[in-house]
Amino acid sequence: MKVLVPIKRVLDYNLKVRVKPDGSGVDLSNLKMSINPFCEIAVEEAVRMKEGGGGHAKDAATEVVAVSIGPEQAQETIRNALAIGADRGILVKAEGEVEPLAVAKLLKAVVDAEKPSLVILGKQAIDDDSNQVGQMLAALLDWPQATFASKIVLHDGKASVTREVDGGLQTIDVELPAIVTTDLRLNEPRYASLPNIMKAKKKPIDVKTPADFGVDVSPRLRVIKTVEPPKRQGGAKVKTAAELVGKLKEAGIF
Amino acid sequence: MAVLVVAEHDNSTLKDATHKLVTAARAMSGDVDVLVAGAKSGDVAAAAAKIAGVRKVLHADAASLDKQLAEPMEALIVPLMAQYDAALFPATTTGKNAAPRVAAKLDVMQLSGVIAVESADTFVRPIYAGNALITVKDEQSKKVLTVQATAFKPAGEGGAAPIESIAVPGGPFKSTFVREELAKSDRPELTAAKRVVSGGRALGSAEEFHRVLDPLADKLGAAVGASRAAVDAGYAPNDYQVGQTGKVVAPELYVAIGISGAIQHLAGMKDSKVIVAINKDEDAPIFQIADIGLVADYKVAVPELMAELTKAGI
Ligand SMILES: Cc1cc2nc3c(=O)[nH]c(=O)nc-3n(C[C@H](O)[C@H](O)[C@H](O)COP(=O)(O)OP(=O)(O)OC[C@H]3O[C@@H](n4cnc5c(N)ncnc54)[C@H](O)[C@@H]3O)c2cc1C
Ligand SMILES: Nc1ncnc2c1ncn2[C@@H]1O[C@H](COP(=O)(O)O)[C@@H](O)[C@H]1O
Q1: Nearest CB to B136 within list A221, A238, A248
Q2: Which of A140, A238, B12, B60 could bond A108 through an S-S bridge, CB–CB 3.0 to 4.6 Å?
């Protein structure tokens, strides 16, 4: 079984963005970029399907392909995935923000060419916070989907997926080929070892462009303004629980 | 312009998020219909018909819609969109699961987590864990939005919209429901609660989490939430997680106990009206946004707080 893992290069989750003073967007210059944490969880799960572990039989996956749509530097993000254990990478080179619908269309083209049995994506990119691409890809392919996965069990041409839903946990069966998106509790990604980081340098990355797939990536939505959220006037402290209750009364809570 | 609001419900109860989405929809258009998709969900359709400002309720009722899984929802809603200019889904796990499928089938981009409607085609939504807000113009012929219900006031009651039963596409579908483990609680639901008490990594164990938080929540009539760290460590179930990638809450009172205040957590609670933080580290970032901070060990502070609340007759 071949597993495809789409990964996104995003601002490192430890960092806070700055909004440009002229309201034209956020300033990412000179900030550390990393693999989207949910994508890292997706790569880890796919690699466990190959190596065995995390409840998966060894060789459940035969090949793990990481694909990223982004600038030239997204090659580094793909190298991260290769160091975790993906076998090869595909970079679809695109400058600027590519909207989830266009990403899904490019990924559909990659799926048509690669024919994986399973595509594991992150549930959400922590920059645009869209939470869309996996579901859109599933629709474009007419595949079943299991989003927000905290457990995946492969059996009999199916995946039994436990999903983190608002009320608790829900388990569904999806027929393969299928789309799964990861939630935080699916696994804890490993730290790539030095030898594996070295090995990753030799693994192949295929470079394509949206034109190769005939996909139009021009944006559908127009961002007219970017602002910082209103600042809260926090910072006030009290010394005792009695004072705290007093403040709550003042604030009209009781 | 006609707008379809997809109702949030569990087949027996209509969730307040629906009323809030109607408010968002009414800011776009006067022609707002509500879709109730479910199984044995007649009570929900009846409740939706009572929301003020609703033109009609579409009621799709079939076993295949029992859990509102993404594929049957897509099959149901995509054809309906011939008659609508916009579909609004709640930004819940059910809404987030189905909406992008509908958008992709209609070949439109979706807007996620909308917090303000400026006009029929202009919306505000957060990005980067709420550290930036973007105003977006959506001039596509069909619009698909997920809406952060907490950002809108609920529409009132008193409507009497007609209920129209509609046909449900039969399938077959390539996904099947197996089972669910849903939390049962007598406390208010987290995203709708007026008060929330949340615990973090500091609580140290599931027993301690419940020993400390439950009585305080009961006293305040509050829902219980948690940080990711507390959920990851198994102190609290996943559906307690508040934050960028968990639930977004905006209660009148949010009490954070032993939570440091990482940006991912703040994203889920910083629109609360009054924020209280109890943390033993005076430099914890949570204090920067807390209206009332108490630098203390929760082991001492929470029992004292309980006693003071009792003294105050609460
Ligand atoms: C992709 C991604 C998504 C994420 N999504 C979310 C999300 O949705 N929600 C979320 O919450 N987090 C999320 N996080 C995690 C977030 O970055 C933080 O790691 C997390 O919020 C920390 O939880 P915490 O505050 O409980 O733990 P810590 O940061 O460890 O803080 C514990 C606090 O308790 C205090 N403390 C310790 N002992 C005591 C005591 N006895 N009395 C009083 N105070 C005490 C400490 O001073 C400290 O401030 C996400 C992270 C990533 C990478
Ligand atoms: N530019 C991209 N390249 C590859 N995968 C992506 C890209 N954008 C989004 N994805 C995938 O889709 C998931 C959800 O992203 P989003 O819908 O943008 O929140 C991510 O976790 C990735 O797995």
Answers
A1: A221
A2: A140
What is the model's pTM?
A: 0.98
Mean pLDDT of chain B: 97
Beta-bridged to residue A2, according to DSSP, are A63
Burial class (CB in 10 A: 0-12, 13-18, 19+), B121: middle
Which domains, ranges and CATH numbers included, belong to chain A?
A: 2-250 (3.40.50.620)
Please state whether B40 falls in left (phi above 0), alpha (psi between -120 and 50) or beta.
left
Alpha carbon of B81 to ligand 1 centroid (Å): 42
The band of A92, judged by pLDDT with boundaries at 50, 70 and 90, is very high
CA of A149 to the centre of ligand 2 (A): 15
What would the DSSP string read from start to end of A133-182?
HHHHHHHHHT--EEEEEEEEEEETTEEEEEEEETTEEEEEEEESSEEEEE
Among the atoms of ligand 2, which is closest to the Cα of residue A134? 12
Note whether B113 contacts A129, CB cutoff 8 Å: yes
pLDDT band at A233 (very low <50, low <70, confident <90, very high): confident
Residue in A123, A234, A245 closest to B290 by CB? A234
Chain B residues in contact with A173 by the CB 8 A cut-off are 175-176, 178
Q: Write the pLDDT tens digit of every residue in A166-218.
A: 999 999 999 999 999 999 999 999 999 999 999 999 999 999 999 999 999 99
pLDDT confidence tier of residue B193, bands split at 50, 70 and 90: very high
Selecting from B122, B179, B245 the residue whose C-beta is nearest the C-beta of A124 gives B245
Contact A220 B239 (CB under 8 A): no
- Please give the C-alpha separations between residue B141 and each of B25, B103, B106, B314, in angstroms, as whole numbers: 16, 12, 10, 53
Q: What is the pLDDT of residues B35-88, one digit of tens each?
A: 999 999 999 999 999 999 999 999 999 999 999 999 999 999 999 999 999 999
